[in-house]
């Protein structure tokens, strides 16, 4: 096991861990929003399947184009509605009125839209002053949207609202997706009380990490499973951790990661799991650990986060998202933007630091102002990255930043 490693080393350890991926399940397409698709979806045929009219128009052959300004094209008494079950054939010297979405009749490659058409004695002419149509004007050609065997949805991507519409168009009633990972969330600390719980203890701390982490897990496509708050007791903590690991695919703990007399999370992990790293050279979130729990042939990941809300949040973004991506067999990015510091920063700690800030777009340029809390100005949440070893940052200097809204 490695200790006090760099962020890059920690991420590499997670990448190389043999985390057991989750299996597939088949669900109704309409319930697949934001689920990770398990197989590529290929186009069964061209779309449109045939050439179709994109306007209400008269269909004819471009070989007869001159007739539109001389003697006119003869018109059939019937027309060509959308969804017509009969294959229409247009003879030389004739035109057939076709409606938006209707298949182009045989022998036709041109359309004269109704706005440009004039009918005299059941013959079709182009209006004076209007240019003659060119072949395939206002025609949606077969395969214009996609061709047979084109990859329309890719294995590992999340299904969007557009994807639901596409599956409906393809008549894909059922779709294979990756099973949602069940992520147990355990928070420990004698000082913690639950939301809605009354107490006479003014020093009690309302538990927020567990609810924040549950929401983050579910925003990524997992199922967050909350367990009751645990007091600082090694035996109880170990027992609850083992139950959570048996019942779920992953475990996230918060609290008990320091070196105090009442911090037992590391000890419990070492007795239950194979530790891969503890302590990373980052701020906040130095006392973070990653471990593996072996259950028969399955390997389940454990992420132990500090109890500080800022540190817990950053630990999830840096490590929890990567682990969940392994389980879901997908990827997510951490978009880096450039931001202008609105005030100088002087620090003593040389660690890579993720300092919380408010990010505001002004005249097309991102500006970062320091914010002490993750719960202020939610729409502007973000962090600036203070490089390892650099202690001074001047006002108006440009730094790397991440918006939390881009990370979920």
By helix and strand content, what is the structural category? alpha/beta
Give me the CATH architecture of the largest domain, please. Answer: 3-Layer(aba) Sandwich
User: How would a crystallographer describe the biggest sheet?
Assistant: 7 strands, mixed
| Overall form | elongated
Rg from alpha-carbon coordinates? 31 Å
Low-confidence stretches: none
The CATH class of the largest domain, by name, is: Alpha Beta
- The CATH topology of the largest domain is what? Molybdenum Cofactor Biosythetic Enzyme, Chain A
Tally of distinct domains: 4
Distance between the termini: 30 Å
Mean model confidence by pLDDT: 94
Side by side, the strands of the main sheet go 1-19-21-22-18-14-17
Helix content: 10-25%
Number of helices: 6
What's the number of extended β-strand segments? 29
Which percent band covers the strand fraction?
25-35%
The H-level CATH homologous superfamily of the largest domain, spelled out, is MoaB/Mog-like domain
